Amino acid sequence: MKSAMTKIVAAISYIFLIFIPSVVLGDLRTDILRNAAKEFIYNTVPFETRTDVKKVKLGEKLFNDKNLSLNGDIACASCHIDKFGSADGLPNSIGVGGKGVGVERIKSGGVIVPRNSLPLWGRAEEDFKVFFWDGKVEKREDTLISQFGRQSPSTNPLIVAIHLPFVELREMIIDTDVVNTTLKSETVESASKIYYTLLERINNNQNYRSAFIDAYNIKPSELEFIHIADSNAQFIQDKFRIRASKFENFVTRKSNLSSSEIQGGLIFFGKGKCVSCHNGKHYSDFEFHAIPFPQIGFGKNGFGVDYGRFNVTHDPKDLYKFRTPPLTNVENTAPYGHSGSAQTLKEAIIYHIDPLRLLKTQQMSAIERNEYYRKLLASNNILLKTSFLDDNEIHQLVQFLKTLSFD
Ligand code: HEC
Ligand code: HEC
User: Fold this and answer.
1) What are phi and psi of 406, to 5 degrees?
2) Domains of the chain
3) Does residue 80 line the site of ligand 1, with CB under 6 A?
4) pLDDT, tens digit, 9 for 90 and up, residues 13-24
5) I need a labelling partner for 273 at 20 to 30 A (CA). Which of 213, 291, 335, 397 fits?
6) Ligand 2 centroid to 324 CA: how many Å?
């Protein structure tokens, strides 16, 4: 009897010895993670959604309407698809001539757009100011910078960004004879001609026309392309607004995370230094950095080459730099990187810290390797600063990244 009792007492004290400290430690870890999130991520006032139902509905129709591309065969919704977290599930997008969704588009013979499609979450929020992988539309200290120069159609960077797909060669337009004569010079005037043609299509469609006049409370003669872009922006603001993620609900004490998710979070804010670039509510500093993601497929600057931010600034310091991508819902937006060269989140993380592990250097041509050395040199900042992460830590980071999806 005595010995049984001793055993029980011994067992209880053993449990206490093991568990009490780990519970306390567990609390400490959750507190550290919550505080880090408040300091580096949720450090701004939440954005209020102010959308107009009529404009949102119009924007939604246009988002899905192929007739709004010059050739009439592609819509925004062809490359920004719910199933792929509002991206398109492909490494490089397939533009004009493409059919179907996801990999079907690759087989359909459409033209390649040399960048990975970007998701649209939170793009209408006031603090989202830099658009596209190379930041070709950005608002810095209230100045809007884009290829429109002084003739910018709006001071709202999303509305300006929405103007671009319509006139971006390969994306929603192809270099046929018609386009060659109008768009060849790539000037604002030639883009205006395309906008005018699309506006005429709206004007010729009585349903659209009266819906716009009603929603914007304008005279028929006042209908302009800006109303089309604005309604699109209203739709994006409404549909792709930021909702609470699993992680945010953890930070506000509405739910818990598993111990591996918490450990991954601590690496994100600590050892992995991820938060030094992926910070703020959108998990982006909206700056440009070179990270050694390999280039796959066409590049903006020739096959296998994309100089990134350099294409906008022409400053050699910006070679191979891309805007830090936001990480909202990142679990659903594979593949990753500006050319979609990482298939999984695990690969995306490895490209930041140990790219040679994934690179099949024997299968690369000498020219491709040479190009990659340049990218590696440009990426020395990140490669020298980040700590080594083992496979278990990378796994925990992946678990954490998945908590950034809406709950
Ligand atoms: C052919 C596929 C395709 C079509 C069609 C398309 N997009 Fe995109 N979208 C992309 C790609 C690829 C990118 C990234 C391009 C880049 O950064 O160089 C992108 C980027 C964007 C961005 C910038 C997001 C960010 O994070 O900066 C917005 C906004 C956007 N698209 C809206 C639209 C709208 C609105 C339409 C319809 C008018 C549209 N797109 C049509 C493929 C497409
Ligand atoms: C020096 C700034 C910087 C640091 C530090 C950093 N990243 Fe990134 N991250 C970027 C940039 C820039 C890209 C896009 C690079 C490209 O496309 O060529 C990127 C891409 C990604 C992507 C792909 C997202 C997408 O939508 O394509 C993920 C996931 C990611 N980073 C997670 C992490 C994690 C996890 C860490 C910490 C281990 C980290 N990053 C550290 C700047 C950074």
Assistant:
1) -60, 140
2) 29-44+243-402 (1.10.760.10), 53-239 (1.10.760.10)
3) yes
4) 444 444 556 667
5) 335
6) 6
